[in-house]
Amino acid sequence: MAITSSVAQTPIARKISTNAVIRTVLAQGPISRADIAKFTGLSKQTISDVVRDLETDGWLKPVGKTDGRPGRTAITYELNASAGLAISIDLGGTKIAAAIGDLLGNIIAETKVPTDARGGIHLVDQFQAVVNDLTEMAGVEMAKVRMVVLGTPGVLDPATGHIHVAPNIAGIEDIDLRQLLTDRLGIPAIIENDVNLAAEGERWKGHGVDVGNFAFIALGTGTGMGIIANGSLLRGGRGAAGEISYLPIGGDPFDPGGFHLGTFESAVGSVAMARRYVGFGGQEGASVADLFVAFEKGDHSAIAAVEETARLTALAIAAVGATLDPQLVIMGGSIGARPELVAAIRRYLPRCTPYPTRIEISRFGNRAALIGGMGIAVAHMHEELFGVDLGEA
Amino acid sequence: MAITSSVAQTPIARKISTNAVIRTVLAQGPISRADIAKFTGLSKQTISDVVRDLETDGWLKPVGKTDGRPGRTAITYELNASAGLAISIDLGGTKIAAAIGDLLGNIIAETKVPTDARGGIHLVDQFQAVVNDLTEMAGVEMAKVRMVVLGTPGVLDPATGHIHVAPNIAGIEDIDLRQLLTDRLGIPAIIENDVNLAAEGERWKGHGVDVGNFAFIALGTGTGMGIIANGSLLRGGRGAAGEISYLPIGGDPFDPGGFHLGTFESAVGSVAMARRYVGFGGQEGASVADLFVAFEKGDHSAIAAVEETARLTALAIAAVGATLDPQLVIMGGSIGARPELVAAIRRYLPRCTPYPTRIEISRFGNRAALIGGMGIAVAHMHEELFGVDLGEA
DNA sequence: TTCTATTTGTCCACTGCCTTGACAAATTAA
DNA sequence: TTAATTTGTCAAGGCAGTGGACAAATAGAA
């Protein structure tokens, strides 16, 4: 394990300079070379050289001129957004959503198809087809796509990328989906848990912007949490960080045989919520959707069911608060993003913890994972294209 | 915010090279210049230059010669451990422990004094005296001490370093202890929560070596947890990460007025444990120490008290596991490190969570925070002396 | 003991990257 | 039209790193 690679002469200094220029342009929008020099502290000469190289390689492009100030007009440069493309795919139990975006993360095209129920290798075929559709819709060549991020349910092993538990989707636990996707598309692929991606999405462009510590809690058919701590995603030892299904809340965790499903998920998942509604007097066979309709009409059974779910969720947030101390909890998922539920949680939380966490509803609804995947893909693309690699550091 | 500082000509390349050399020497022990060159990938010439500079500045020193291999003998170099010193201070409610260590983190001298009950500014006087004692004991000059780390109970604001809640120690919530210490000693000071330091200590030289995700749980008068996640300390938004006192476990978190003390701490702290023992039939007025003596003799009340504490702690570990997914939980503190208790926790944990975490007892006992402080101090010293600063990166 | 293979470490020439200062070019304000 | 100001290029110089040549030093073999 060599610490510095240093194949050629002294590429490191130029790489650092290039990286500084790119980051400055990325952060400061259209900017002149003179301003880049002031901002980075590098000399005008160096900046001119670097910008020239970047322009001939197609990464930067001149976009305009300054005016209004005294002195010679300056040519302003911007990142050539179309120089690199990335794809985000959100694999769900019923549908596959996908988007293609440019170097700045602007989404150019988006599509959605039903998930192939046969699962397994057939999904890879679907991904291929979806990617083809996207490049066609966007009118771009596949060669410029440099990164694909796939969000899936389930626990992913951080080391191998192996998907451990994915109840909704058939036959993906035994195949190396990341490798298959990489091979099929010929570009680097990343797999990440969908709730983790939702958290990344909120960090990128949602409520989590500039928040270094927050959690995204998804309540729906199942329960999950994505954690951003110290400004980066927390995966845990086996990739199971945020698997709040197993929180010892909402039932007796020592109940033999019961805890394997997850004490918390057994208490607040959609099945439990519907059953609770029925138990409180709701219509036999009612779904969670029915419950919220009834809630709207002021149905007492529905209100009681929501209240109880909110109470348990508040306890879970209290537990998360005592462990992670997030500045913010973002609620998502088909149930978790319901304003009625969140309002109730906001009422319960200060009653069970002295330092209640701020709670927001996800900004992106069911597109959060897709957005987050794009954020990750763009970040990795930047790293791959412009990143400075000191070996380890 | 300039991205590269670049005061002089091109200091960055030489800094990177120097850093690579130092890290290689640090990791590979006594090593020749030729081997450093092979290891880093840099040329022999560069290594010779860098080593010469480092030697004249006193950071490296030749320690021997190679032999046994064919070819010319090589001079091997080692880090000059005494070139830089660091101090770790552990501020406790009853005593102040402190140690001085060298560039490699070897502890040279250690001391302990009772905490000045007047607290506040008097503590700074004590710190000063303790530091003087240490340098005298170690026979070193204060000028070579480059970093001091202070561990304290309480929640520290990550941004300001302000100590929020420190029940055991008088008058330190209103003063800027870090600034006072820095000014008094004339060297950079860092303040960190003592349980966090204990976790860092285990990571540095204890059970947490090479474990990227683990938690150190301290049970004693109070309860606390230090978290290492993704290989680094997790502080949370307000520095309150790991404040498991507030876990909604071991009582009714909605009990009005009760939760301010912390539901979990109220259930497993030493006061609660002694009261539980008495409640189960133990001697009126018995302490936790008495409890464990009785436990040793097979006293049923004591056994029941330990069992209940273990059961609740297992639940807390289950909650932490569902949130952080640590590979390991290390138990510490006067109660938490008791083997009897840990044995019971190990029995309970698999009964309340499907993926029980491995549990170990702290390797350093009540010196864990002191050791951890030394680890942090040494790491910061290395960073300050040899670190490569790309501005942000 | 002598020779050979091998390894260490230095010397030297060369290249790449960055900086500084000078200066031409272009624009606003007076 | 002129002065002030800013942009961007040119040219010279320095630092850092590389690679090849080579002297020095040693183990092992003849």
UniProtKB/TrEMBL annotation, chains A, B:
UniProt domain HTH marR-type: residue ranges: 23-69
Coiled coil: none
Domain of life where this protein originates: Bacteria
Pfam families: MarR_2, ROK
GO molecular function, one term: DNA-binding transcription factor activity
Membrane-crossing segments per the record: none
Family stated for the protein in its record: Belongs to the ROK (NagC/XylR) family.
Protein name: Probable transcriptional regulator protein, ROK family protein
Organism from which the protein derives: Roseibium aggregatum (strain ATCC 25650 / DSM 13394 / JCM 20685 / NBRC 16684 / NCIMB 2208 / IAM 12614 / B1) (Stappia aggregata)
